[in-house]
Amino acid sequence: MRHDDRARYDEALQGARVAAYAPGEFAGQESFMTASEIRALARRAGVGPGVAVLDLCCGVAGPGRLITRELGCDYLGVDTSAGALALARSRADGLGCRFAVAHVPPLPRGAFDVVLLLETMLAFADKEALIAAVAGALAPGGRFAFTLEEGEPLTEAERSAMPQADTVWPAPLDTVTAALDAAGLELVSRDDRTAAHRATAQALTDAFAADAAHIGGHLGRPALDDLLTAHRQWVAWLAGGRIRKLALVARRPG
User: Fold this and answer.
1) CATH of the domain at 42
2) 1 found inside a domain
3) Using DSSP, how many helices (H) and how many strands (E) does the chain show?
4) N or C terminus of the chain with fewer C-beta within 10 Å?
């Protein structure tokens, strides 16, 4: 969903998000990932002290703040939403995180050790162009850590039923692997998180429904209905095998 007033949207969903995750697993993320999954993927990508990390489509940067605080890194978060980054900056005080408003691609100039793209590969219809841009931003030996909604493109019927379907572009793993190969990146790690993300999607759906009066009062009934419709669809897709959720790391040789 698109939300220009990110502070209002964040406040509306905060209580339900906290309730949906197990203790210690909510770190301000706007996704189906848990804090444990974020840590694990960051560690597989080699995030640590002195590592230059570029976090694409970071939103309010819950995952970025988590890895900066716990693993240490030179962090730059990029997002198109100035409102989201204003919240990110206010919550990252003392962590040394940097943020920039930008559309992706292109990517910020520089050579990064790790590029992160968490739960937003889905929004890019042209994944080949995105992956090529990521490869160009990686230093030799750099790693691209991302999540993928793996499956065939949506049918017209599926697109008509999904709110904001213009940001929902699943892709087969073979297509993404071919794009990685063409960009000179080698897939070195793959972890299937489908079952875990189905459970999280269900927990979020239940929490949003339980807090419907509060959320609807802040965002309006149409936004609440879209939120619930989208999450129920994700539960169905993940439960039925229509979509798999994968956590992947690719490496640039060097």
Assistant:
1) 3.40.50.150
2) no
3) 10, 7
4) C
Coil, helix or strand for 229? helix
Residue 180: closest CA among 191, 188, 192, 168: 188
Alpha carbon separation from 129 to 72, 179, 180, 191, 251 (Å, rounded): 30, 9, 10, 24, 17
With contact defined as beta carbons under 8 Å apart, do 62 and 28 qualify? Answer: yes
Query: What are the beta bridge partners of residue 115?
Result: 54, 144
Alpha carbons 59 and 72: distance in angstroms, whole number:
19
Per-residue pLDDT reduced to its tens digit, 22-76: 999 999 999 999 999 999 999 999 999 999 999 999 999 999 999 999 999 999 9
- Asked whether 29 and 52 are in contact (CB, 8 A), the reply is no
Q: How many domains does the chain have?
A: 1
Dihedrals phi, psi of 247, to nearest 5 degrees: -110, 120
What tokens were used for 61? 């940067």
Asked if residue 97 lies in contact with residue 68, where contact means CB atoms within 8 angstroms, the answer is yes
Q: How far is CA 21 from CA 72, 189, 203, in A?
A: 24, 26, 7
Report the Cα 149 to chain-centroid distance in Å: 11
How many residues appear in the chain?
254
Collapsing DSSP to helix, strand or coil, 155 comes out as coil
> Residue 167 is encoded by which pair of tokens?
């940001």
- How far is it, in rounded angstroms, from Cα 47 to Cα 39? 9
3-state SS class at 94: coil
What is the domain extent for residue 187? 6-251
**pLDDT per residue as tens digits for the range 136-165:** 999 999 999 999 999 999 999 999 999 999
